[in-house]
Amino acid sequence: MSNSTEQLTEQLSATTLLRFATAGSVDDGKSTLVGRLLHDSKSVLTDQLEAVEHASRSRGQDAPDLALLTDGLRAEREQGITIDVAYRYFATARRRFILADTPGHVQYTRNMVTGASTAELAVVLVDARNGVVEQTRRHAAVAALLRVPHVVLAVNKMDLVGYEESVFAAIAEEFTAYASALGVPEITAIPISALAGDNVVEASANMDWYGGPTVLEHLETVPSTHDLTACHARLPVQYVIRPQTAEHPDYRGYAGQIAAGTFRVGESVTVLPSGRTSKVSGIDLLGEAVDIAWTPQSVTLLLEDDIDISRGDLIVPSGDAPATTQDVEATVCHVADQPLTVGQRVLLKHTTRTVKAIVKDIPSRLTLDDLSQHPDPGRLVANDIGLVRVRTAEPLALDSYADSRRTGSFLLIDPADGTTLAAGMAGDSFATAAKSVPADDDAEWDF
Predict the structure, then answer these.
(1) Is the pLDDT at 209 greater than 70, yes or no?
(2) Is the peptide bond before 296 cis (omega within 30 degrees of 0)?
(3) What is d(CA 232, CA 322) in angstroms, rounded to the nearest whole number?
(4) Whole-number Å distance between alpha carbons of 82 and 297
(5) Handedness of CA 329, 331, 335, 340 (dihedral sign)
(6) Contact of 421 with 345, CB cutoff 8 Å
(7) Are 119 and 147 in contact (CB under 8 A)?
(8) Angle ∠(384,425,154) on CA atoms, nearest 5
(9) Which among 279, 379, 411, 443 could bridge 339 via Cys, Cβ 3.0 to 4.6 Å?
(10) In terms of Cα–Cα distance, which of 198, 217, 209 is closest to 164?
């Protein structure tokens, strides 16, 4: 291994990054929690705090409204709600964080899908006065579908219920039972008051019956279990580099960001969907030749053979190649205002590849109240979660979403205006318990 590769390895191991998202129903206090987290962990710049204090005074508030640290749109401030996903970057002595504060309104559930799609932990807030509501169940279902490995139940506004342990215990028991039935692997319940700061960064003196970690303590110590470097190696080709200069007359490289796993010089690889094989003759990283590269590095692979490779192709180890298929079965979260219907023509975007497709069947829609499957709904509307079968015009190399969140996911897009219709997760999920529907004859397909 070269010195530069060793240095990159040391840098990678010396830093720990956690991506997490917040979710919850309207007025559960998500933005206040995020603001309190940033404020009490000393992650707010002086001018930012002064701006929030000024805005709070102009609205007649005595104390600074910490929710304004994340609710940046004018409409958000006027209505007191979160509309768009707000990303915040902060760090403590123990860990770096990328935080996605997602909306609570039902009509903006699609934004929660965006924020949680790359998250390793989701904080689901519940108002202690209201308990688990439908939107709480919806967010738990989305977190389960997106395979978020850690979920924190933050029971907020404990100050408004007298810091009663029984209230917290009842909510924690109901949510844990529901989320466990969805397959969420780890659930941690924490009683908090985001407004007063109880158990957010500092332990609360008002809840001596609680002996667990604060929200920040848990965020700092939870293991980052979703290690993409241990997944199946995948490189979606974004661009073919062919300079044809006097210095590099025969250079032909295939550039892209490694979606998962690790590539090494000398390794046998297969290009999908063509199935052609070759060996890695070189790896260029940041202008230097290296012997090994891993996710999420952006690299250029050089191969021993000249193969017809273009944007959208997938380079994988020859001994670990996924099967290609034109029939995709997946669970989707529908995110558009217009419905998704059987027979609808769409575009399917998977990594760097976009192909034409038709929605062949919608076998079931998930009912959030009791997790039952509503068979043959015929269509999905905004915020619905359902099972779909799609036929693509060209073969795709899809992994199961359970194996790789990057190469097991895709988008369905309206070909007329480019609107994103649904976010899909290929392979098994809790939606696969839906009633089995036999496949139709493919004779009607025109591709």
Answers:
(1) yes
(2) yes
(3) 9
(4) 33
(5) positive
(6) no
(7) no
(8) 65
(9) 379
(10) 209
Q: How far apart are CA 109 and CA 122, in angstroms?
A: 14
Task: Report how far residue 379's alpha carbon sits from residue 67's, in angstroms, rounded to the nearest whole number.
Answer: 37
DSSP 8-state code for residue 261: S
Q: Which amino acid is at 116?
A: A
Taking alpha carbons only, the member of 303, 270, 271, 306 closest to residue 284 is: 303
At residue 433, the pLDDT reads 36
Which residue is associated with the tokens 């050089």? 302
| pLDDT tens by residue, 105-146 | 666 667 778 788 888 999 999 999 999 998 888 888 888 888
Region 247-275: mean pLDDT is 92
**Tokens 């999920």 — which residue?**
429
Beta strands in 181-323 (DSSP E): 187-191, 235-236, 239-241, 253-257, 262-264, 268-272, 276-285, 288-290, 292-294, 298-303, 314-317
Instruction: DSSP for 77-109, please give it.
Output: HHHTS--S-EEEEEE-SS-EEEEEE---SGGGH
**What distance, in Å, lies between the first and last C-alpha atoms of the chain?**
48
Quickly count helices (H) and strands (E) in the chain: 8, 25
Which distant-in-sequence residues (6+ apart) come within 8 Å of 153 by Cβ? 124, 126, 171, 172, 175, 176, 179, 187, 188, 189, 190
Residues 6+ apart with CB under 8 A from 245: none
pTM (two decimals): 0.78
Positive or negative, the Cα torsion across 133, 134, 137, 138? negative
Q: Which amino acid is at 160?
A: L
Coil/strand/helix, residue 225: coil
Burial 43-71 (b: 16+ CB within 10 A, else e): bbeeeebeebeeebeeeeeeebbbbbbbb
- CB atoms under 10 Å from CB of 415, counted, come to 13
Q: Name the β-bridge partners of 257.
A: 298
Two tokens at 67?
Answer: 């929710």
pLDDT tens digit sequence for 46-78: 656 566 555 656 666 666 555 665 554 344 444
